[in-house]
Design a protein that fits this description.
alpha/beta; Molybdenum Cofactor Biosythetic Enzyme, Chain A; Molybdopterin biosynthesis moea protein, domain 2; binds adenosine monophosphate; binds magnesium ion
């Protein structure tokens, strides 16, 4: 029994709740220019200090009028109005409304005081001193009111949000030149396995290329985080321990791959024990990847994945997102669990709860690939979700099923 209770045979939900409890919000706040904030996580609420727009503006190129002055206007009986000024976007008229007048106005310009609508130029003779209005209009036509996009005091972007293109636009629209964000998470990767070779090098007999660290590094970067350490180690305890300590030093969180099982060269448990890391769990009742270990060393989480690529990816997705969400105080980083229905059957009965590859399309989830072997991941390009199959269950088309959608 460890300090978190039983370390083995726990459910996925229990594993996630232990991760939540153990991962502290450790990525401090920093201020960055808005232009560099894409993909970062806001550390504070960003509330608009202004109305956007802060003045009523024209939605058309045309003439600012008072709608009541256009009453009865028709192409065969146009209404003449005196043009008293002409303004482009960014310019402000010195004039305000007087009866029977219009102001020539371009899209985006401030509608002068007292006018309540804009007649588009196609509905006029485009006159300069006097304009003939061919179309009666109603008040507030082609008129963008103050605060149409956002009012002063409105939440532009709440804390814990990932800044995407819409958030970047909203922050810009309110005039935030700088934004308060969390320092991007630094993730260290330690790949273990004496059979592993770096892509680009020649492959000796019996060896394979390291593929997982590239998947993990890509996931980390796609979330806007930094790969702060990346090292390939042979199955030698002292080398792995040295790399793990260096990785911990350089990172907020470390991912290791390989060596978590029960083989002769499965050294991760020993290394974690030697450095004095506290294990949260090491056997979750879930396939693939039940040997996954999650430990904490001086408040830094260590996620130790099996070396089988599919198992590694599933378990990375399940646990890394949960940990990152706690460290960055950003629930948006969690995988989204949704209830849906199966579009096709899954017939294998598994003793353990199983996560399989899926494709969510047109409101239904379809199992992808024939094998579902944890060493195979070539079919993952078709996946956009995982399907969560309870122990002892199969799926028929039309059955309810829960899915976890990929974030990217
Ligand atoms: P292990 O978890 O060390 O028992 O490895 C399980 C399987 O995954 C073995 O077939 C390893 O050769 C393979 N494997 C381990 N690490 C990697 C890696 N980084 N990339 C691809 N395959 C790996
Ligand atoms: Mg190994």
């Amino acid at each position: 029994m460890g300090r978190y209770g039983d370390l083995t045979g726990i459910s996925l939900e229990e594993a996630l709740s232990r991760i939540n409890g153990a991962c502290k919000d450790t990525c401090e706040e920093m201020v960055v220019p808005l232009g560099e904030a894409y993909g970062m996580i806001t550390s504070r609420d960003h509330v608009s200090g202004i109305d956007v727009p802060s003045f009523p503006r024209s939605a058309m190129d045309g003439y600012a009028v008072r709608a009541s002055d256009t009453e009865g206007a028709r192409p065969d009986r146009p209404v003449p109005l005196k043009v008293i000024d002409e303004i482009n976007a960014g310019e402000v008229s010195r004039f305000s409304y007087s009866e029977g007048t219009a102001v020539r106005i371009m899209t985006g310009a401030k509608i002068p005081e007292g006018y309540d609508s804009v007649v588009k130029q196609e509905d006029t003779d485009q006159g300069t001193a006097e304009v003939l209005i061919h179309q009666e209009i109603s008040a507030y036509m082609n008129y963008c009111p103050v605060g149409e996009n956002m009012a002063s005091g409105d939440m532009a972007v709440p804390a814990g949000t990932r800044i995407g293109r819409i958030e970047a636009g909203l922050l810009a629209g309110c005039g935030f030149g700088e934004v308060h964000v969390r320092r991007p998470l630094r993730v260290g990767i330690v790949s273990t396995g004496s059979e592993l070779t770096r892509p680009g090098e020649s492959l000796a007999e019996g060896r394979i290329y390291n593929s997982i660290s590239y998947m993990i590094a890509s996931s980390v970067r796609s979330l806007g985080f930094e790969v702060s350490y990346d090292r390939l180690c042979p199955d030698e305890e002292d080398v792995i321990q040295g790399a793990l300590l260096e990785a911990l030093d350089a990172s907020d969180m470390v991912i290791t791959t390989g060596g978590v099982s029960v083989g002769n060269k499965d050294l991760i448990h020993g290394v974690l024990d030697d450095i004095g890391a506290h294990k949260l769990f090491y056997r979750v009742s879930l396939s693939p990847g039940s040997p996954t270990v999650f430990a904490v060393y001086e408040d830094k989480p260590i996620l130790c994945l099996s070396g089988n690529p599919f198992a590694a990816l599933v378990n990375f997705d399940l646990y890394f997102h949960e940990a990152a969400a706690s460290i960055m105080a950003a629930p948006c980083l969690k995988l989204k669990r949704e209830k849906t229905i199966a579009g096709a059957p899954y017939e294998k009965v598994n003793k353990m709860r199983r996560i399989i590859r899926g494709r969510y399309e047109g409101g239904k989830a379809y199992p992808v690939g024939k094998k579902n072997r944890s060493s195979v991941f070539s079919d993952m390009t078709e996946c956009n979700c995982y399907m969560d199959i309870p122990a002892g269950h199969t799926l028929s088309a039309g059955d309810a099923v829960e899915i976890l959608r990929f974030l990217s």
